[in-house]
Amino acid sequence: MSRNHVSATVNGDQVEFLCETGQTLLEALRDELRLTGTKEGCGTGDCGACSVIVDGRLVCACLMLAVEAEGKAIQTIEGMATGETLHPLQRKFIEHAALQCGICTPGILIAARSLLERNPNPTEDEVRYWLAGNLCRCTGYHKIVDAVLDAAREMRGG
Amino acid sequence: MSATLKYQEKELKLVGTRPLRPDGVDKVTGRARFGADYNLPGQLIGKVLRSPHALARIKSIDTSAALALPGVKAVVTRDDFAEMPDEMAAVGELMINFRDVTRNMMAREKVLYDGHPLAAVAATGESVARAALALIKVEYEVLPHAIDVVEAMKPGAPLLHEHQYTQGVKPKPDRPSNVAKRLEFGHGDIAAGFRQAEVIVEREFNTKPVHQGYIEPQACLASYSADGQAELWTSTQGHFVFRAQCAKVLQMDVSKIRVTPTEIGGGFGGKNNIYNEALAIALSRKSGHPVKMVMTREEVFSSTGPTSGANVKVKLGCTRDGKITAAEAELNFQAGAFPGSSVNQASMCAFTRYDLANVRIVGHDVTVNRPKVAAYRAPGAPIAVFGVESVIDEMAKKLGIDPIEFRLRNAAKEGTQTYYGPKLGPIGYIQTLEAARAHPHYRAPLGPNQGRGVATGFWFNIGNETTCSLNLQEDGTLTLMLGTIDVAGGSRASMAMMVAEELGIEFDRVRPFVGDTASLGFNFLTAGSRGTFASGMASVIAARQVIEKLRQRVAKIREVPLEAVAWKDGHARPVDATVAQFAPMSLPEIARMAGKTGGTIAGHAEINAQGAGPGFGTHIVDVEVDKETGAVKILRYTVVQDVGKAIHPAYVEGQLQGGAVQGIGWALNEEYVYGEDGVLQNPGFLDYRIPVASDLPFIDTVIVEVPNPNHPYGVRGCGEVPIIAPMAAIANAIENAIGLRLCEQPLSPPRVLKAIDEAAAARR
Hints:
The structure holds two protein chains of two kinds.
Chain A: E1 4-10, E2 13-19, H1 25-32, E3 51-54, E4 57-60, E5 73-75, H2 88-95, H3 105-118, H4 124-130, H5 142-155
Parallel strand pairs in A: 1-5
Antiparallel strand pairs in A: 1-2, 3-4, 3-5
Chain B: E1 2-3, H1 24-29, E2 44-50, E3 56-62, H2 64-68, E4 72-76, E5 88-91, E6 94-97, H3 98-105, E7 110-111, E8 117-123, H4 126-135, E9 137-142, H5 149-153, E10 179-187, H6 190-196, E11 199-207, E12 219-224, E13 230-234, H7 239-250, E14 257-261, H8 277-287, E15 291-294, H9 297-303, E16 310-318, E17 324-336, H10 343-350, E18 359-367, H11 381-399, H12 403-409, H13 429-438, E19 450-459, E20 464-472, E21 478-482, H14 491-503, E22 510-514, H15 531-558, E23 565-568, E24 571-574, E25 585-586, H16 587-593, E26 602-609, E27 615-625, E28 632-642, H17 649-668, E29 699-704, H18 726-738, H19 749-763
Parallel strand pairs in B: 1-26, 2-15, 13-14, 17-18, 21-22, 28-29
Antiparallel strand pairs in B: 2-8, 3-7, 3-9, 4-8, 5-6, 10-18, 11-16, 12-13, 12-15, 16-17, 19-27, 20-21, 20-26, 23-24, 24-25, 27-28
Helix pairs in contact in B: 7-8, 10-11, 11-18, 12-13, 14-15, 17-18
């Protein structure tokens, strides 16, 4: 089976990979680039565990073909912290015990960052509806919502 | 050794605080490695061919075309696995039979459900493996199937197992049946109890199977070497139990399989059993390559879990002043394709919140053409309690008694004789009821179409086989190797906290890990809310051994009697000046000298933990019913639970919130939907709808602490109780909102609307 050559930017780094035409961006990230922080929970765009940012848009990496990543800038969980310094959302998730098993955590962090970039001062309802595409089976979302609101507060300097 | 460590009240520095979990940074940066994140050089991808039929005899399986496909390295079918005799083993709260395990992982005579594995292939890539599956030819003789539990129990229903005769019936029945087992619990005189009753309420309930819904599909990686050794990386709640199951079905020595547990992306009882693990080892053995197998979400829904659907009948008799005189129930549980549902546990949990003189419960474990059920958080209890707490609520209303007051008048307490065996020890049920009654939530005003519901839950909690090693390192820090999986709740943190508390040192001086199966002796699964109870006890034993050795070293170094050396705040100090005077030594000082004073210092525990303390909870929920659509909105939710002692309160709150929300999903939306053809119609998160953030309010928690006398810090275990009450609490709230008693789960918009429409039609 012939494979396609794709060039893209991932977390600021220029990358190249080969993929089958039917492979998803999620498979390319995980299996070709070995960036396994992005998770597969369903493969059908229903759980949000594979959330990544592509050219500024929040997408499910399982719903995008890898070949469509040509020339795109992709951000994944591996690029969220700066060196040893965690993003405020990452820090607040730990402080608020907003993660348990952690399988949904990368996707939720990516989605939450995307929210705060658009809306630095969300209400509880806005957080809940923005994150409605990210399933978590452990926490009941209580501490996740708390952590996002607290991180937003801190990032606003309040 | 069988172990209990008695509870000692003492001043605590660390236990009860909220340090940051040691697995936190890895989990927020994407570094934490889950089942599907492991890879080996030269690995193949394994995929499973599954039955499209609910019940069919397998006439033939032809794998020759698949094997001929370039890139295909191995195919396994029933012919690659030995027949297993009937032999039972414990898996969490449930029992398994190896005859069934080997048939569930790979069909033999018949396929018994949509999704039942028939063959597995290993190929150089995912797309080749999928192409190979399409080339396997299977000839079926399709048979009529049985899906509904009540229908399956009837004589003449399509039969799953010709060799299955109902156990627990005397004399032995003369024909096989889908009813694998009949069981009965009770005490007192049920007929006399109903004769004393002045008011009787009787209701029938039906529930659908629901899935554990962990977000991480099952995933494993196996590598079998030519010398007969196997390594396995897998997402599991019990790596020692998985090893035992693989060794058995593959006929290997236990010590020749080494299982390394990965981070687990949720389990809730659903990762207590092997599915692909033995297939991956067999494919690796046959191909000579490592084999990785990751389930799709569709496979997770069609072929793993779920919990039972059930038919439940409850009858309650009561005096006019609110004393229950008789309690009777019949529980008919779907077991799935093989026997072994949680009907036993459900029976024992049904009424064990009340002090009752006359109880009778009959349970049936019924095989149907659905996936074999697995444990799901307090297995069975939510189903029985949905019925019982609905009837309790209806009875309270009939008698004009406040529902919490009614429960208090009949509440179980220390000394209550259960109808299944033991007398209850010190428990906190009454305290949870009183805390709920005193909570502002219970008095908050409600609007139109809004209602408040209350329900309660009980779970046994368990102890069991547990080991750990605590190694003092040369700089005075410690590594704690645990044998119980941290299934998400943060048990690694809790165990390290108890060890640091014992040693009087800071939390971050103790680094906890979960060891592989070669590093420690056997551990039972993390199930039954046993992790922090049993592994906590083992950790405390290991810590106390280390302290004893530290004192011995200091006695030797300082040349004083052992009795003169006390351990306090991370230092060896003189007990008092009258016995001996010596300069105190810190943990790092002793550790640095350990090599020269007798060698490395370590503590070990190999125990069978006894004395788990039962847990009780009381839930309050407010709902609003949309009479146009039938949608039920959760407005407010409060969980009150006796946890014995919250080692890390934030993680205990997380258990209470997460469990309650799983219960909310069970109550309102989740269900398996099968077509007439016996095929599962909703094997995905779009059509099997678990709760999302916008469905929910904040979940308030009240932690009650009545210490378990059989744990050094009073721990009971807390993970399972919170899923038990929500279904009944929500049904009770809906009844209070719109005056209709709903007895069919899920209480989804179509069902609620139908009930509203039928009630309106009846009034006309």
